[in-house]
Amino acid sequence: MRILIVGNGGREHTLAWKILRDAPEATVFVTQPNGGMTSRVEPVAIPSGDTVALAGWASAQNIDLVVVGPEGPLASGLVDRLEHVGIPAFGPTKAAARIESSKSYAEILMLRAGVPAAVSASFTDLGEASAYIREHGAPIVVKASGLAAGKGAIVCETVDEALQALESIMADRAFGEAGREVVVQEFMPGEEISVFALADGRDAVLMLPSQDYKRVGEGDVGPNTGGMGAYAPISLSSDALMSQVEDEIIKPTLAALAEDGAEFRGLLYAGIMLTESGPRIFEFNCRFGDPEAQVVLPLLESSLLDPMLEVARGGQLGGTILEWSSGAALTTVLASEGYPGPYPKGRRIHIPESVRDDPDVLLFHAGTTSGAHGLETSGGRVIAATGLGTTLSQAASKSREAATAIEFSGKQFRKDIGWREFARAERDVSMAQPEEVSQAEPGPG
Ligand code: AMP
Ligand code: GLY
Q1: Which residues approach ligand 1 with their CB closer than 6 A?
Q2: Hey, where are the domains in the chain?
């Protein structure tokens, strides 16, 4: 089988790794592969954004399946072009990808589908948006409606901050044309989970939920990034919660898209806040999360390729059951100094053999390239070091040891990925000590 993966970041490295596990005999092509992928895949020199050239290439090369990793090519209609030339592709069409590429469309869709979501409003006029913010008060969330590499959402503690965010998105165009329209959203307190759903247009199969750590700093401080680490599984999750997410959020959304003539076939990613009133959606993405894929896919024991092929060929997922490892995975992203702001490139990377050879460590490269002097940095997020273990603590140790041992100048990473899970576990232990609890609790009165 000949498979083309479009995209060259950490998510696409993980997809290539999983597909080659599912089908070791397959030939996997990747557009402009990063420095960690080159040994196992065939490079294709076409950039992931050149949809015309990619469709032509895939057709001439008799490709059996194209897997589109990033949102950019999906939003610009790569899958539509591939469909046109008869190449099966895993990923939504341009119309269905609007669920991510236009947050204002997503808001309208969610309202129509009646899914539990943050209260929100869209604006193209700065004055009207300011008035709405003054009326609703803070905390409040201001988002560029278009694609902004995961950085377009600003959680604001005060009205002044929100007005500044608005100014920077709409007037200064901090995220370019993505800020022509903004979505202002109610702030929802709670813990976040990322849910991946393989979708065939009508039905979905949910994958293991994970948790992403989006802020650059330890303790979840500083600006949002594309994601500094993730872990799975999550003790907060349960079969009942996942059924609720499927029935109340995923299925009604797929039905609303289908009603719009935009059947979603591919991977629907739901960013969900677990609030006191139940799970509520704050964003949809039209592709796998990065770095969530780096923990979810290593725990998937059954094939990913089979359901992807089924969806890409226009089939149905009915009866598909995914099998999961009983272990845990945690990934730590090594980033360049300065990220998510401007960062240097071309720093030499050293990966010790002990890390390379550790069967419980998987290194998924993102911004790396094989230069004349070996491996070098070429992006903001450089490598995701995924640790595997029977328990989450073991997975965390493996990931952190690897992150510490890999060297490049200016390396930054968070040593606290998964802290919410560990804090929960500690709380559960202290709750389980009955004597202390009965002393601490006030009597029935
Ligand atoms: P997004 O770009 O929509 O994924 O948002 C980035 C981050 O901002 C999310 O991971 C959340 O931590 C936070 N966020 C976004 N929307 C909301 C919301 N309505 N309430 C609270 N936090 C939010
Ligand atoms: N990690 C968040 C995202 O992929 O959008």
Answers
A1: 118, 141, 143, 150, 152-153, 155, 185-188, 192, 214, 224, 271, 282-283
A2: 2-94, 119-186, 326-417
Would you say how long the chain is, in residues? Answer: 445
Mutation choice for ligand 1 from 155, 212, 224, CB with most ligand atoms inside 8 A = 155
Overall fold of domain 326-417: Glycinamide Ribonucleotide Synthetase; Chain A, domain 4 (3.90.600)
| 195-245 pLDDT, tens digit each | 999 999 999 999 999 999 999 999 999 988 889 999 999 999 999 999 999
3-state SS assignment for residue 105: helix
E strands along 124-245, which residues? 140-144, 153-156, 182-186, 191-201, 204-206, 211-212, 215-217, 221-224, 229-232
Q: Hey, what CATH topology would domain 2-94 get?
A: Rossmann fold (3.40.50)
pTM of the model: 0.94
Q: What are phi and psi of 61, to 5 degrees?
A: -95, 10
Topology classification of domain 119-186: Dna Ligase; domain 1 (3.30.1490)
Structure tokens at 240: 């009942």
